[in-house]
User: Fold these one by one.
Assistant:
Number 1:
Amino acid sequence: MLDYVWLVPFLPGCAALVIGLFGKWLRTRSGYVAIAAMLGTIVVSLGCFWDILHGKGPFTQHLFTWISVGEFKAEAALLVDQLSVVMLLVVSVVGSLVFIYSTGYMKGERGYARYFAQLSLFAFSMFLLVLADNFVLMFIGWEGVGLCSYLLIGYYMDKTWAADAGRKAFIVNRIGDFGFLLAIFLIFWTSGTLTFSGVFDQAPVIYKYGGGVVTAITLLLFMGAVGKSAQIPLFIWLPDAMAGPTPVSALIHAATMVTAGVYMVVRCNVLYSLAPTSMEIVAIIGAATAFIAASIGITQRDIKRVLAYSTISQLGYMFLALGVGAFAAGIFHIFTHAFFKGCLFLCAGCVIHAMAGDNDMFHMGGMRKQMKITWLTYFAATLAISGFPLTAGFFSKDEILWATFRSGHLILWLVGLVAAFMTAFYMFRSLFLTFHGESRAPEKIKAHIHEMPRSMTFPLVVLAFFSLVAGFFSIPKVLKGSAWFEHFLHPVTNRGAEILHELHVADPTPHVPELELLLMGASTLIVLLGIAAAYAVYIKGWPEIPKAWAQRFGVFYKLSFHKWWWDDLYNSTFVQGTIRLAKAAWQFDIFVIDGVINGTAFMVRSVASRLRKLQTGQLQAYGVGMLIGINLIVLLFLLTR
Amino acid sequence: MLSIIIFLPLLGAVILALTVRRKESTFPRWGSLTVSLITFILSLALLTRYDPTAIGFQFEEQCSWVPAWGISYHLGIDGLSLLLVLLTNLLTTISILSSFTAIKHRQKEYYIFMLILQTGILGTFLALDLFLFYIFWELMLIPLYFLIGIWGSADRIYATMKFILYTMTGSVLMLVGILMLYFKSVAAFGHGTFDLVKLYELGLGAHEQFWMFLALFFAFAIKVPLFPLHTWLPDAHTEAPTAGSIILAGVLLKTGVYGILRFCIPLFPLAARQLAPAISWLAIVAIIYGALTALAQKDAKRLVAYSSVSHMGFIILGIFAFNLQSVSGGIIQMINHGISTGGLFLCIGIIYERRHTRLMSDFGGLAQNLHKYAVLTMIIMLSSVGLPGLNGFIGEFLIILGVFKHNILYAVFATSGVILAAVYLLTMYQKIFFGPNDNPKNQKLADLRSHELWALIPLVLLAFWIGLYPKPFLNIIEPASNAIVQTMQTPHTSETPSRFMVEAVHELPPR
């Protein structure tokens, strides 16, 4: 099946082209075309997974030489190994479910065909990003998903806020790409190649452990990851990206695209392992993002925004894992997060549909009565994201926290733990506010609340199921599990560690099973505390306690509610600064440069009006003048020689 | 073959001038379209017979013209000029097609000037004799003067005068430079010559090269245009009729870069090396300054015009980094800029023809009723942004890749220009196409008509082709850029690696 891996990007690519060209004619059938393509990618992905599982690969498929100038060469080639095949499965399975869901959610929308064309184009780019065997091809996918994100965020294009949000996403991502591009150049001119295998094989020889070049490369790459995966300081685009249709938020802005940064860093784990400083920075940024985003999530009223900040926070956890060297744990969290966050967003979509487009949780409440399936699946996914024992999130998050602790980053571990508390709190807050208590919706909308059609509830059930059980793929050894997932990824994710081992850089501290169990217990306790707190405040204490608390902790409440004023800060510095600079440049053009030019012209004209007397109209006179002129030029030339 | 390609449009112009009498005749447009299309097909035939592996010029034609002064009628083509000839013929055909409904008065003269312009540009790209080159160079100006002056918009007279004065200043300096070169050849060979191939062997000293380089470079830099000689461009581009803007941005600016590549660098390599840092910094200023100025514009056409300043800065920066990747990137970016910016002017022209305004604030929400137009404009816009998978990326990537090797600081500045390009172009697109469509005048606009669609489609296809499979283009370009790089690698001027690279090498452990 590995030979057919080209079909994976090809199928959705074709679907995008066909729908794009014949969308007018296909109408609602365009959804089926897109779904068929995605189901095809599941089949091929499973086939590839089967082959890799049975020891075939890593496998590289050369398609054609894309760019070639002198010593520079970029192949269009696909790489299938343990890492990419896991990502393939996530993208194709979650992708297909979201596509199916979309046929219900987008029913009757004006741009139905356009939506599916863009969503298919997204799948194409995402597969390309995952399968690329070199940095340049990866960059095509990288920018391609960014483009689709831009288009889909701005799907409701007659709304100025949607267009603004799309543009913001694209530009902020471009700032990250600035780093990614420079990293590519630096890698090429120091290693002479851009294929992953070529760079990583040479890396231990070319780059000195902890050296300036490899640190620069990894930090620049990380800059790209920070943009794409919405980390501090570039996370501001993701909350605004919720302007897009909800299935888009589920697929692109939760399950797949935003994890691309994590994937890329894991892909380059060899380079990162050689750059301890960069690893430290990755870990710190990750932990800080996990904390700050969670703290913002606590006070938001818009259900999609809560989920957006929780995505940022969970991505922060993933980077924390990478920063402490637990690359497999980071990918495992991508894997579980794709299911529960996808599920949460799709549930939110159902809720918003039922609420006739209102996102404000303070207008909801009591929806569990009319929407049983949505409620139950949301509940399951909330348990998972909070890290409730034995759900998917429990295993993946705990592995991260344990790895952080084991590597000696006690402060970061503590930050992660506090963020876990907040996660449990704000997620259950959203559950309680939306589905429990009394309905706060206006009568007219209340009558409208109903369960969604099968096409929309079916994906919910599948995703909720995985949110509960996906963790069993990697039960840690301390719980008598086999840590299968980690083992499977080992050949890719452990390369960095092997190199460090060869270089005799200190190994992590030895494994202490009792301690791991103890920490697991601690984080379980924290989660239960978070849930209990949310229950006390939003079920028992509603509506007095939330108000009282908001007043008592006024400063913190404002800090959280206003998102730490990040957007305002950027707006008043970078955005306004650029606009002012642009205006200044234009003024300079008009007054200074053109001023000089027009001034010269004016001078020439006034001189010319005097010289006009020379225009006698006699050809002989002109001839003499020309002769004198040419002689002058020749003379000038002879003198300067 | 080359002569036929050059003079076929001129012949067409003469025939048009002699035959058409009736004012409302549609013959001028169809006739000129046919002529330019045949010229384009002929240049495609040239492509099939061109041998990219051979060194030097091909399809050479030479006959003595004024033997006393060593002037000859000498034509020839290499990879660089081949692609530019193809671009010229394609864009001329497209701009004639785009004028079908846009030009309503004095049609006959309009199409005559378009064809003369084509001859002038083709001659400029194909002449291998400096005197002949100069004649074609000046020939380009005359039809443009009339095209902008007669068929331009409100402020056309100011724009025309500015354009002509700027370029004439350059021309005078160029003439001085050419004459200086001629007298050098008298001294060196005993008899003077204007033949470029012979002049390449002149072997001038560094001091002599310096002044001649400056004289020629000044003329070419105005055409490019390089900051701070660019202020003619926004006016000329904005006031010109759509077809004029397409030709100006798409082809005419390239004559400046072509001149630098064909004359300045090979004839005066030492001076080029010496002045490269200064020129590179001007190019960097152009990239960022052009982008910032574009961001401040309210007029869509003026915005695209300033974006040209920025994009041309990339090309100059790439060329003056003198390595294979950056020069190849610079050359393919010349083609890309023709496609992308030419395409953008075409797109704006389409909407200008319907609404007679270019102010972005007069539009908004057009994507809701003009579907085809919105999609095609989006693709062209993204190709100008440099989105991977489209043509612009290939050029920018290769340029910055090469520049990075040459000087990391340059590369960092240039890359920041890539961010700004996204800012101003996406803002422009958003203002025109997104948001509510609340202006009643915009609600009943018609989507693309067939001749507009056919003018845009080739550009879009090319954007994808170069973006996804640039190999055929790079195969033609590489020998040409290799020649430039070889010229610059005289023993004592060989590339010194930048400091960062040296450090990187020092980090290597002993093997």
Number 2:
Amino acid sequence: MAKVILKTITKFFGSNKVLDQLNLTVNDHEFLVLVGPSGCGKSTLLRIIAGLETSTRGTTVIGNRTVTELSPKDRDIAMVFQNYALYPHMNVYDNMAFGLKMRKVAKEEIDHRVREAANILEISNLLDRKPKQLSGGQRQRVALGRAIVRNAQVFLLDEPLSNLDAKLRVQMRAEIIKLHRKLRATMIYVTHDQIEAMTMGDRIVVMKDGKIQQIGTPEEIYNNPANMFVAGFVGVPPMNFLSWSPGVVLGIRPEYIALIEKRESTIDTEIRSEKGDYIIEGTVEVIEYTGAEKLIYLQTNFGQMVVKTDTSQPIKEEKRYNLLFGTTDIHFFNMESGLRMGQDRPEQLVGTAAVV
Amino acid sequence: MIQWKFVRNLLLVFFCSLYVFPIIWLVMISFKYEVDIFSIPPKWLFVPTLEHYQTVLADSHVGAFLTNSLFVALGTTMIVLLVSAPAAYGCARFQSKAAGRFIFGLFLLRMLPGVAVVVPIYLVASKLAMLNNYLTLILVHVCIVLPIAVLMLQNFILEIPKELEEAAMIDGCSRSAAFIRIILPLMTSGIVATSVFSFIISWNEFLFSMTLSGYSTQTLPVGVTSFMTDKTLDWGAIAAMGVIMIVPVGLFTFMVQKYLIKGLTMGAVKE
């Protein structure tokens, strides 16, 4: 297993810059997830690591070797493709054995490794079948198996679950995590699905327009997003953004807001001390029931907001509610740059909180 | 409903017979006596004879025509496949302006009517002392077939996901090894369709074979004309030759029709 180091990777397709001066270090044994909207360059980056694409500028290092100029076969990597890319004219066994045969591994060794991988993935009974005769989930396992048998230094996975149905996706997600724990391999995983990224990654790299927006553990990404893009991209439903004061945007996640029915008699300050530091007033427009929770869409003075509540709280449409949230849960962003204002956020902003 | 079905079938029979009629007519002539061939109105029922086949097969040249044709058509097919498969792969996978121009260039020869290039080609061949030479015939036939073969195979390769080669390249293949081990086996039906196609074109080609072949390299279509002399026009023998020409191609096509249909319809529907 090995480290992967990318130094100032830049990639142009024609005059179109898809990757811009990217620096990234993937640690040994790490499960790193590249996530971002389509067209952000995450797949291109993975393909550059694989050697299927050459970077216009920059260096790629795998282990102790600079591989920038090497062809894919000399990089000692294994890759799983979105459409599985199983060889249709070979059975499962030959599909898995192909890479070893090409590397002139001894027959007994090939047999041993293929059967071992098949055991791990529980596909031992499918070895004689052709890919056509397999279900989507089985094909995915074979594709993983083909990568495992190689004992490569780095595993690259390019949206491997996006062709599966929702239920199978969740199941395979857990299996890939288990597999990573078992193999202790360095894995780089590309996805556009932020839930996959959050659940699977040791660290997450959020990308947009060919640039890295933030690198961090799922907790860091979720709780301390570097900018408005990351804050809005991670989390379902996305963070609420309120234009709080000139040039400043306040962000608050839907699950950190409490709803209290507005009664004329209640004194706002009392609630405030009990529930939070901020109060906004809003009218419920739509209620979405998702089973485990409810999503409440409200119209407020700051625009539309969404609140996630548990199903036990009775909420009525078209009623007025107080939205309450605490200082520790909010983020301030610079409206122009989108960057989060960290420790140095202006004091007076906190002071404006009580404005309703 | 029933009426519509009837009309539909009638139309089908009509249009099919338009295509099949010349062949039926040809076969009938080949079995007719001289008198029946020219009888008006045409005779649909007649006493069959094998005399034309006997004449044709007794002619010592016909065997040579047949071997020449087979040799040229097989040679053409082989060279076409050897050249067009990698060319088509290149055009399909490295789509660029250059690839587009390459295909356009290939088609230039097809865009001109054959008679326009036959004289220059004859002169070149004659200067190179390559008249009456199998290689010349084969090369010219290759030029005729190649553009369409490249285009056909290119469509096949475009159907194959490029991730398959990429997977093979990561598995330890060079690009050419990936092409040979992964792509070629997957385009079998395309290769069969293309080879049938180039075999038939070469087998039937007349103009260039007529001009460039000599006494010992005449192919079947050219050989047929030897039954047309300034004194006689032996329709019976010509028809018999025609049938003999059709049979090998028919058999070949019949044998590979499974691949052919798959090959010609590939890409029409998404799997």
